[in-house]
Amino acid sequence: MRKKGFTLIELLVVIAIIAILLSILLPSLNKVKQVARDVVCRSNIKQWSLIFAMYTQENDGKFPGQIDGLNFDRGEWIVPLRDYMETDSDISLCPTAKKDDVSNMYGSTFTAHEISDPSASYFKEKCSYGVNCWTFAEPLRFAKNTDWENIHWKKATAARNSSNVPVFMDSKYRGAVPHYNGTNGNPDTIAPTATQDAQINWASGMGTFAMPRHGGGSNAGINVMFLDLSVRHVYIKELWRLEWYKGMNISGYTNNGGTWPQWMQKYKDR
Q1: Residue 1 maps to a domain
Q2: Model confidence, pTM
């Protein structure tokens, strides 16, 4: 008696059903992975918030800044904070921003950057986060002759609306000073970069943080720790409504009629 097997049509039907199921499930699995990476990133930044808290408690409420004898502006904050970290900790890397084997001072939306001194002999580490340098304990070396002293956040308790003052976040570089060369109180000069990963402008600085690293569709943005040490997701366009320095106009981006570059137009307004 001949054994009955599957016909070609039956096999094709089974394959088609599997293909349909995969097409339904894969996007969901990818979304789950994306959410998981986002959660890990926020957990990393929350751990950093505890490190910042310990440091400020021992330093008269001041955040770390530059260190005499070193010379990698906007990156020296990490040196004293490492004393509060576990030596094998990997909280400097966002799981969405891959660690690149190639040495690169600048990162991108999905790659880490490198923090190091000019000779890379004292300090060298891959990192996916950066700071708002307006929170440094003292003016940056290249900003000594500005009115920095009057508008930067001198202490962790300096702001009434501390939940809107960004301190530490997803970043393409070790730190930036949004609006450094602009007119104080006028956000117009904090122009968005023309492309998502355009060369970072250290003067305006906002391009260092404006990227869709977390969240899908119009909800894309970054994770941010604020002056009150809270951590939350911030939409890309919402960055223009955060108080980066004391007295900043937070009405949003209004330059050029408030027209965002093409790559940003699909993201949610906040």
Answers
A1: no
A2: 0.84
pLDDT at 102: 62
The more confidently predicted of residues 213 and 246 is 213
In a domain, 87, yes or no: yes
Domain that holds residue 131: 10-264
Q: Is 3 a domain residue?
A: no
Decide if 31 is inside a domain. yes
**DSSP one-letter string for the chain:** -PPP---HHHHHHHHHHHHHHHHHHHHHHHHHHHHHHHHHHHHHHHHHHHHHHHHHHTTTTPPP---TT---TTTTTHHHHGGGS-TT--TTS-TTSBPPSS--S--BTTB-EEEE-TTSSS-EEEESEEEEGGGSSS--GGGTTSSHHHHS--STT--TTGGG-EEEEE-SSSEE-TTTTS-TT-GGGSPPPSSTTPPP-TTT-GGGT-S--BSSGGG-EEEEEETTS-EEEEETGGGGGS--STT---S---HHHHPPPGGGTTSPP-
